[in-house]
Amino acid sequence: MVGGILINVNPGKTKSALEAIRKIEGIKYAYAVFGRYDIVAMIDVQDIDQAAATVIDKIGSVDGVVKTETLIKTNL
What we know:
alpha+beta
């Protein structure tokens, strides 16, 4: 299952949050971006439960992360 994660962080925390997110298992890549979000990451995981654990437990616990929005790819 592939998904995109749009991440907001506290001011001044983008670099450290990005470094931590890049180390999380299942994260294929993560980049700092300009605009409404601070970081965009792509995940590749086995199922929705693993996606939820990655986003909620791992990314959500990174220092500075305040909000995420996850977009899951479908096979339509």
